[in-house]
Amino acid sequence: MVNTRRKLIVVANRGPVSYQRSPEGERIARRGGGGLVTALRSLLARHEVTWIASAMGEEDLAVAGEHGGDAVDETARDGSPYRMRLVASDPSTYDWYYNVVANPTLWFLQHYMWGLPYAPDLDLGLHNAWFNGYLPVNEAFADATVAELERDPDAAVFFHDYHLYLAPKLVRARRPNALTAHFVHIPWPQSDYWHVLPEHLRREIHEGLLANDVVGFHTERWKRNFLRSCGDILGAEVDIAASTVKHEGRTTLVTNHPIGVDPAEFDELKDDPSVLEQERLIAERRPEFLVVRVDRTDPSKNIVRGFRAFALFLDMHPEMQGRATMLALLDPSRQDVPEYSEYLAAVQREARAVNDRFQREGWLPIDLQVADNFAQSVAAYKQYDALLVNAVFDGLNLVSKEAPLLNGRDGVLILSENTGSFEELGEWALTVNPFDIYGQAQAINEALTMSADERRRRLEATRAHVRANDVAVWIDAQLADLDRVSERVSA
Q1: Tens-place pLDDT, residues 332-372
Q2: Cβ atoms 49, 83 nearer than 8 A
Q3: 1-260+470-491 has which fold?
């Protein structure tokens, strides 16, 4: 493990805290949400970190204004100091950046979520959103990053995810010697799919990433797709064996490191009073078998097909009716984006249809809970007999790693072959094709009827892997990547 304290600038859309007002009118800093924030929190304890993030709400904007855009001194929950710099954007600019380009365009593209005969229609609105939203916000992040580099010229810069594909090139133009890395947390599709975007957009995205010294992905699969798309779209010189791309006089190292979780955090959470109360409620109403899924209400999570697979399982195995329930804990996500609100409605309709068909006194086939209730999710991790993770595509999927750490019933993981975590956990999971409803129904039955010894063997192997490959391993691997390219540049 790397123990040397480094100066790091983390650049991500979301920050580790967001500011709000208490009922008494006092300003409070609340822990930021999202897997990225959770994963990177351990950086704060081990390094000198400045975190650059979007001002997300009114109080964030007020803090940014009061400090003239400069960084605020903050303290993590463990007492570690860090600096946070909030980037303020005009609401309409941020809306174009986030709700037009980043999520319904880049997110959908990178998760293969379009039915191409019908969508997308890349109209004038997208082009306006790119030039008047996505580009200006990336420019503002680049300005903030350059300002922090002026303060700490030796700091390394960590860009994160699809919101900020343009910022690295903008920083590189002004700070040619900056040491930068960019980690992409979502899938990277094959190059043909990138041709859905107009040429200038797909080129600018690839060129923005190649302005970094290191580009990282969770899996070998996403890394391989990126290397090939750099060659296909830019005509860049790609060395598959060395995992490098040469373009416009620069060489970028491309790596893959699957993100881990913090086992100590979940060891602590499992006995939290709020989790124990939620577990009591689940245990009181559960039948003999419990199939659990924990997701955001995102179309990429494939929730509707999962419900249909559970209905087919009940059809194929009527002896399981009354004995098995699917507990679906869904966190409402991006409801400002029409595609997401429409998908949530489809999820609710499908659950209603299944329940109307099979429900009887004392038994609910699909127990659908739509709420932001982390304690309930952790409690469900402890109680599942089968965990269904059937995403259409997923950059990694942390649920598939978190839940086995806490499960107390030798639960079986059912895992889509298109999740990033499948590359690590597939040998101990039941593999499903996310489009194959029949195959998923079979997997549910296999999970619930598997022998106790085999269930235990799979869970213990998964748990051991997750504990050995925690978030600290992921962070140290990326710091080692920076050391490699730094040595190469200095040589």
Answers
A1: 988 888 889 999 999 999 999 999 999 999 999 999 999 99
A2: yes
A3: Rossmann fold (3.40.50)
Which residue, 248, 31, 10, 205, is CA-closest to 106?
205
Q: What's the whole-number average pLDDT of the chain?
A: 94
In this structure, the number of other CB atoms found within 10 A of the CB of residue 27 comes to: 11
Positions of CATH 3.40.50.2000 in the chain:
1-260+470-491, 263-468
**Mean pLDDT calculated for residue range 49-75:** 91
> pLDDT grade, residue 406 (50/70/90)?
very high
Closest to 96 (Cα-Cα) out of 104, 88, 86: 104
Distance CA 236, CA 78 (A): 45
Using DSSP's 3-state secondary structure scheme, residue 146 falls into helix
Q: Are 350 and 307 in contact (CB under 8 A)?
A: yes
Here the tokens at position 297 are: 């209400």
At 56 the three-state DSSP class reads coil
* Band of residue 488 on the pLDDT scale cut at 50, 70, 90: low
Spatial separation of the C-alpha atoms in residues 50 and 61, rounded to whole Å: 18
Residue 295 DSSP SS3: strand
- pLDDT one-digit tens code per residue, 443-455: 999 999 999 999 9
AA identity, residue 436:
D
One-letter amino acid of 266 = F
For residues 11 and 22, what is the distance between their CA atoms, to the nearest angstrom?
A: 28
Considering only CA atoms, give the Rg of the chain: 23
In whole angstroms, what is the distance from residue 383 CA to residue 288 CA? 11
Q: What fold characterizes domain 263-468?
A: Rossmann fold (3.40.50)
Q: What is the pTM of this model?
A: 0.95
| 194, amino acid identity | W
DSSP string, 407-471: -SS--EEEEETTBTTHHHHGGGSEEE-TT-HHHHHHHHHHHHHS-HHHHHHHHHHHHHHHHHT-H
Q: What is the largest CA-CA distance in the chain?
A: 74
What DSSP letter does each residue of 4-51 carry, written as one string? ---EEEEE-SS-SEEEEE-TTS-EEEEEP-SHHHHHHHHHHHHSEEEE
